[in-house]
Specification:
Helices cover 40% and strands 19% of the residues. The chain is of the alpha/beta class. It binds manganese (II) ion (MN). Manganese (II) ion (MN) binds next to loops.
């Protein structure tokens, strides 16, 4: 499956890398690792994302390779692109946000179109790219980028190893989510061989939070509600609370899973009111029930044990309705 992609890469010169909205470290680590590998081959590469990098993730990009898409500034770049890599997102051009339409036009243009290549580990990929490698068994897209680079005979530089490790570390919840397997640890071992310091990277991701974020975590833990015979836990966070703590909705990585610490909880739900008056829904499951179906019904998606969506509506109402739907999914009476 990699040979066709490697052939396309060898023939072309201009590359654009992109990923989904709501950036995370698997998305960014995969982009940055692939970017460095392609540039080591002498390619011209731009990473263009719809969203800007949240403050908590900026440490990942010291050379400022990540760019936020601007239609006026980047149109000519998109026009020049011969290959578009879509990483960690496989449910279509809409999933990559604002830039999706411009990239779709480039990939679907009748004359001299760019080749769209999708690499992802989310289940149920849409048929939108010319080449697709989707492996839902992979714990992170970074695992697949590792496979691509090593199949191509590329060198795992210390920075490539670091980016891939960050993607795997975070998408596996520090090597504990259900997709963590032998291959995940074998890759991690190769990345440590290539120079990764696991203690250092753990600190960079999990122990550099501002005080206010940790205090907000305390608030969320205090506000947790539990229902469905102890099998569902949830919390609704409104904009006013986020503002009071000085934390942005983009910096709540790890919060949706907080309630999974409680024994007996099978599904946890975090609903966050966004600045635009919408509700950002995050679902986590212990693996005994798939929550991505519910997220898909709401226009979102994800993995069986970690999924999400953003919907219109009132925060309290959306939360209450979702709790009822989760209880129905678990077949427990409230
Ligand atoms: Mn991922």
């Amino acid at each position: 499956m990699w040979s066709e992609i490697i052939r396309v890469v060898s023939k072309q010169q201009h590359f654009i890398l992109t990923t989904h909205a709501n950036l995370d470290l698997d998305a960014l680590g995969s982009e940055l690792a692939l970017d460095e590998y392609l540039r080591s081959l002498g390619k011209e590469v731009s990473i263009l994302n719809s969203d800007s990098v949240p403050r908590s993730l900026r440490f990942v990009d010291p050379e400022r390779r990540l760019r936020t898409f601007s239609p006026s500034r980047h149109q000519s770049k998109i026009q020049r692109a011969e290959v578009i890599f879509v990483l960690d997102a496989s449910d279509g051009w809409e999933r990559v946000g604002r830039i999706g339409r411009a990239l779709a036009a480039r990939a679907e243009s009748l004359q001299d179109r760019a080749t769209a290549i999708c690499i992802d580990h989310h289940p149920d990929p849409a048929d939108f790219a010319h080449l697709t490698v989707v492996n839902p068994a992979a714990a992170a897209t970074a695992e697949l980028i590792f496979d691509l680079i090593t199949h191509a005979g590329g060198v795992l530089t210390p920075s490539i190893a670091r980016w891939l490790y960050l993607g795997i570390l975070t998408d596996t919840g520090s090597f504990r989510f259900p997709k963590t397997n032998l291959h995940t640890h074998q890759i991690a071992a190769r990345l440590i061989e290539a120079g990764v310091d696991p203690t250092q990277l753990y600190k960079e991701v999990y122990e550099q939070h501002p005080l206010q974020l940790v205090r907000l975590k305390g608030y969320v833990l205090n506000s947790l509600q539990v229902g469905g015979n102890g099998q569902v836990a949830w919390c609704a966070l409104d904009q006013a609370t986020l503002k009071a703590f000085g934390v942005s909705a983009a910096d709540l990585d790890g919060f949706p899973g907080l309630a999974m610490q409680i024994g007996g909880v099978r599904v946890s739900l975090l609903c966050v009111g966004t600045a635009k008056g919408r509700v950002k829904i995050s679902l986590r499951s212990d693996g005994s029930v798939a929550v991505n179906g519910l997220a898909a019904q709401l226009g979102g998606g994800g993995h069986p044990s970690a999924a999400g969506a953003t919907v219109e509506g009132d925060l309290a109402q959306v939360t209450a309705q979702l709790v009822a739907r989760i209880e129905a999914l678990l077949e427990v009476r409230p």
